[in-house]
Amino acid sequence: FFMLAQVYIGPALIPGLMAVGLIVLAIGSVKLIGESLTRTEIIGITLIMAAIFTITFSELVIDIVVFDFLETGFLMRVAIFTFAIIAMILVLEASHRRWIKIRAVARALISGLFIAMTNYWIAVLLATIVHVFEGTFVLLELGLFAISAVILVLDNIFALGALQSAFLSGQANLIIPIQQVPIQITPGFVFLLMFLLPAPSVLSLILFFAGVGMIVMSSFLLGRRQVALESIK
Predict the structure, then answer these.
(1) What are 142-196's pLDDT values in tens digits?
(2) Model's pTM, two decimal places?
C-alpha cells in the first residue's frame, strides 16, 4: 500500500497521511492496556484528524509516473538533499558523543532523518523498477535503481538501530514524537526544492504546513500511549 501511495500521490503527502496510525494506536490500545483515553489523547487524535484533512486538501501531489527522474538538475538536487541529510546525521552523531545528555534526542532525530531520506528515495526506486525488470532500461536508470535499493536497505537498518539506541538512553514517551519532526517537515521541502513543483496556491502551503505542525503536536500528546504499549510486549 505504501508503494501504491507513492505512485498515486508521491512522497510529499504520504508521511502526513500515515500519521493516521497514531489514531489506531491510541484507540486500539484502550483494550490492550485497559485504560480509557484521556482528554489530552482525545485532543491528540482530533489534531491528527484535522491534520489529515488539511494535508489532503493541500494537493501537494507528485506524479512520479510522468516526472522525469533522469533530468540532470533533479539528480543534482537529490544528491544535494541526500548529502545534506547525511551531514545533519553526522553532526548529530558527533554531538551526542560529546554531550551525553542529548544522546536520546540526537538518536531519535537521526532515526527520523534516515526515514525522511527513505521517503523520497523510494520514489526513485519505483520510477526505475519497471524499466529495469522489463529490460528496457538505460544505463542511468539501472544505476539509480541500484543506488536507491542500497540506500533504502541501509536507511531502514540505521533508522531502526538509532531508534532502539534512543529508547535505551532517553525518555521513551518523547522518542517517537521527536523522531516524527524530520519525517513530517522534510516532505514539504522535497516538493518545493527537490522536485521544484509549484504549489497549487498559497493556501496549499498553509494547509500542508499547518497539518505538519498538528501532527508533530499530536505525536507528543500521544507519546505516553506508545510507551504503555511497549511495556506490555
Answers:
(1) 999 999 999 999 999 999 999 898 888 776 666 777 788 888 888 888 888 899 8
(2) 0.79
DSSP 8-state class, residue 190: I
Exposure on the CB side of residue 217, measured as CA atoms within 13 A: 17
> Mind spelling out the 3-state secondary structure of 34-86?
CCCCCHHHHHHHHHHHHHHHHHHCCCCCCCCCCCCCCCHHHHHHHHHHHHHHH
User: Closest by alpha carbon to 60, among 210, 233, 226, 170?
Assistant: 210
Per-residue model confidence (pLDDT) at position 5:
61
CB contact set of 177 (below 8 Å; sequence gap of 6+): 216, 219, 220, 223
Q: 144-147, long-range: CB within 8 Å, 24+ apart, which pairs? A: 144/69, 144/70, 144/75
Mean pLDDT of 96-108: 85
- What's the rounded Cα separation, in Å, for the pair 95 and 97? 5
